[in-house]
């Protein structure tokens, strides 16, 4: 065996051991290190309640996993909205990932609500809204969304007069 072969083999062994050690450790992303047990939820097990006052009245929410207010924690929640429900232009402090479970969620981009400039996202559609990107929506038929992101979660309206908390 040549010394070059032994050195290459030793180097490869050290690299493999380092890779295995890194793989066995908890992830460095705090959002990925929170879950300690499985979550399995059927539609019958979902318990709907009124959404937070940041959303217009009429919608219902349920948390599937995590805590929307906790920093650096992945959360998942569902939002059930009636037909013709409208969410004014707003943005979030983190990327928003949406999956349309049922109904049609019509989404538009920008700081002005323009119903005719929305794209219908039907059941099975997936959307990612980058943090700080103004967007708006309205529903056709009862619509259920699943949202997941990294907390803490906020919804900031582009125009303060659209914020439902200002009308109470």
Question: Secondary-structure map with pairings?
Answer:
Layout (H helix, E strand, L loop, with lengths): L2 H22 L24 E2 L9 E6 L8 E8 L4 E6 L4 E14 L9 E4 L3 E4 L5 E16 L5 E2 L11
Antiparallel strand pairs: 1-2, 2-3, 3-8, 4-8, 4-9, 5-6, 5-7, 5-8
Keywords:
single chain, mainly beta, 168 residues, Jelly Rolls, nine-stranded antiparallel β-sheet, 13% helix
Mean pLDDT: 86
Globular, elongated, flat, extended or rod-shaped: what is the shape? globular
Distance between the termini: 82 Å
The CATH level-2 architecture of the largest domain is identified as Sandwich
Share of helix, binned = 10-25%
Number of helices: 1
Order of helices and strands: HEEEEEEEEE
Beta-strand proportion: 35-45%
CATH class placement of the largest domain: Mainly Beta
Which blocks of ≥5 consecutive residues have pLDDT under 50? 22-27
Largest sheet: 9 strands, antiparallel
Number of strands: 9
- In total, the number of domains comes to 2
For the CA atoms, what is the radius of gyration? 22 Å
* CATH fold-level assignment of the largest domain: Jelly Rolls
| CATH homologous superfamily descriptor of the largest domain | Jelly Rolls
- Helices and strands: which structural class? mainly beta
Can you give a write-up of this model?
The protein has two domains: 33 residues; 133 residues, Jelly Rolls (Sandwich). Helices cover 13% and strands 37% of the residues. The chain is built from one helix and nine strands, in the order H-E-E-E-E-E-E-E-E-E. Strand 2 and strand 3 form a beta hairpin. The longest helix is centred in the N-terminal third of the chain and has 22 residues. The protein starts with a helix and ends in an 11-residue tail after the last strand. About 4% of the residues have low confidence.
């Amino acid at each position: 065996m040549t010394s070059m072969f032994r050195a290459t083999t030793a180097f490869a062994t050290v690299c493999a051991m380092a890779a295995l050690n890194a793989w066995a450790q908890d992830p460095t992303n705090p959002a990925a290190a929170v879950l300690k047990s499985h979550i399995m939820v059927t539609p019958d097990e979902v318990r709907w309640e009124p959404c937070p006052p940041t959303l217009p009245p009429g919608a219902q929410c349920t948390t599937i996993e995590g805590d929307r207010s906790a920093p650096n924690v992945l959360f998942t929640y569902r939002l059930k909205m009636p037909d013709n429900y409208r969410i004014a232009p707003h943005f979030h402090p983190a990327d928003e990932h949406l999956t349309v479970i049922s109904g049609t969620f019509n989404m538009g981009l920008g700081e002005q609500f323009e119903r005719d400039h929305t794209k219908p996202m039907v059941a099975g559609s997936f959307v990612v809204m980058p943090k700080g990107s103004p967007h708006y929506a309205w529903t056709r038929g009862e619509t259920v969304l699943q949202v997941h992101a990294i907390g803490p979660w906020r919804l900031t309206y582009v125009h303060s007069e659209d914020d439902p908390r200002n009308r109470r």
